[in-house]
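User: Modeling request: complex.
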Amino acid sequence: MDRQNGFERVPLGATDIQISPLGIGTWAWGDSVFWQYGQSYTDADIDAAYQASLAYGVNFFDTAEVYGLGRAERLLGRNARQAGWPVVIAAKFFPFPWRPSLFQQRRALRKSLERLGMERIDLYQMHWPFPPRSIDTWMEGLADAVEAGLIRAVGVSNYNVAQMRRAHAALARRGIPLASNQVDYSLWQRKPETSGLLAACRQLDVTLIAYSPLAQGVLTGKYTPENPPPGLRGRRYARSLGRVQPLVALLRELGAAHGGKTPAQVALNWAICKGTVPIPGAKNARQARDNAGALGWRLSADEVQALDRASAQAGR
Ligand SMILES: NC(=O)c1ccc[n+]([C@@H]2O[C@H](COP(=O)([O-])OP(=O)(O)OC[C@H]3O[C@@H](n4cnc5c(N)ncnc54)[C@H](OP(=O)(O)O)[C@@H]3O)[C@@H](O)[C@H]2O)c1
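Assistant: Request completed. Predicted assembly structure:
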């Protein structure tokens, strides 16, 4: 574990990029389809979330061209330029079936750079492993982008073990490490453990970036069967909200034993203890500050095991 101005830093895969052991996700920054952008939070809240993240030592921000149809990249880029403090930005290319060529991949990258207002993206990820283009072809395009100086590192997202190994091998032929694989991972979604993906990441020195690490707010403890999350999330988690409450109770108990940590902080710390980099979404300064409070301390091995058991009992 390295430190930068006193803040914890870990390497991003086998690259020389140093990131905080926890990042911030920006899907909700500008999205009013799944999230409630413009209703329960505004651009001012997002700016405050950015500043709070920096103040509490977070230097890693995840975005994508599809978040808010480009608005998330614009908001993130504006904040990064105004703050003038070096941060690590991860963006993503979405392989829509109507954009199957490397020319289109490069054009999408240039548009992301434009929206971010930057000359280079630190980590550029394939958002999904969708056909028709082969993984090898997409990796060739991304290796070319590294060589052209447009991106520093290459990542993938939602790739299974076989797909990740294929991407890793294709990049290795060009002398470039696969830096990361971003997947759904939390106390509510443990598939990367049972599928062997987490083990394969460790073996290949690929950082597993854990998305939805709070199960989209459910692991914060604020949602119950009587008070479900708003919008589309309500339906997604309807059947789980009752079953997850004993797990939430354990998150509270362990948080209290660590000097008043919140359930969100304990859930994120669990993901860090597993060797992953969680990227919780934060819509305002309070959430960003709370999530950053998962840094600077660690659960014990026994506590991690207790959470493993409680999460298995909560099922999915
Ligand atoms: N690669 C992919 O396919 C993919 C897919 C999904 C997500 N992601 C990435 O992962 C990031 C995080 O995932 P996510 O946003 O789906 O889920 P998440 O991080 O598990 O949950 C985020 C939501 O939980 C609530 N929340 C967050 N921190 C909180 C706190 N401290 N206290 C109380 N409530 C809190 C907020 O919503 P409310 O206040 O409305 O409850 C927030 O929008 C995304 O922003 C995105 O960057 C990637």
